[in-house]
Structure of Transcriptional regulator, AraC family:
Amino acid sequence: MSQSSALYDPVAASRQELADIIERHCAGAGVHETAIDALSLARMNQPSEGRMPTLYRPALCVIAQGSKEIRVGPELYRYDELNLLVVSVTLPVSGMVIEASPDKPYLSLRLDIDPGELTRLIADAGLAGSTPRPASRGIYLQRLDTTVLDALLRLMRLLDTPRDIPMLAPLFIREILYRLLRGPQGHLLHDLAMTDSQTHRVTRAIEWLNRNFDKALRIEDLAREVNLSPSTLHHRFKEVTALSPLQYQKQLRLQEARRLMLSEGLEVAVAGHRVGYESPSQFSREYSRLFGAPPLRDLASLRSALGDAAMPA
C-alpha cells in the first residue's frame, strides 16, 4: 500500500466534496434556495456579530465547513462538520456562526423534513408499532456517519445535473430520512410522525400556537385541543421545546414583531399590537429582554448586520 493511499480519509474527502458543492452553488454570503424544493444552502464569510433569534422548522442541518452555536431555551448546542443537527418540531432558537472567514467560509445545508413523508416511510419500511416513549427534546445532535453523508452527497450532486432532480431527488431524500430513522436517535423522528405519541400531541400544540400566537393563551383550552391534561401538556411541552407554552408563545410574538418592523416597516407600537401585546411598554421590555436592545436600536443594528446574510441553518 502506498503512503498516499494509507493517508487517504474517505470521510474527510466526502466532507470536502460536500463543501465544494455548497460553495459552488452559493454566489455569495447568505441563504440560497436550490432547484430541490426542500434543500437550501448557506454561506457566511465571517462569524456572526451576535445571536440571531429565529424559528427552526423540522429539518436536517449539516455543516460542511465552520461551526455554529444554537441556543434553545437555556440549552446550548454547538456543532460542526463532524455532526448533524436534526430539528423534529418547530422551535424558536437563537444562533450564531462562530467559525468563518473569507478564505474558509462557513458552509451548510438544510433539508426540510416533511412529517407526512416520514409517516409514509415508516409504514413502508415496517417501522410502525414501536413502544411509545416519553416525549423528548425536539432537537438533537448526532455524529455524521458515512451512510447519511453518502446519501446527502448523492442528493447534492443533482444540483449539477438538474434534469435528474425530479426523478432522483425524492428517492435520495427518502433514503436520508430512512437513515435518520434507523440512527441512534431515530425514535425522535419516529414519534413526530406517530399520531398516538405524546410528541405528536405536543407537535399539534406547537402548530396551534404558531397559527394563533397573537391570541390570548389559556393552557386548559390548548390541552383540550390536543387531548392532554393541562399538567401533562405543560410538562411534555417543556420536555420537547425547553420552554413552557407561554414562553414559547412569547418568543413567537416577539420574532414576528421583529420581522414586521424589519420587512414591512411597521412602527413599534403597531407591530406590538399586531402580535397580541396590549401594552407598548410591556412589549418593549420583553423585546429588549429577548433581543438585547429596545426595538429601534435593535432594528438599526440588525439592518447594518444583514448586509452579510440572514441567519443560516
Summary: The chain has a mean pLDDT of 89.
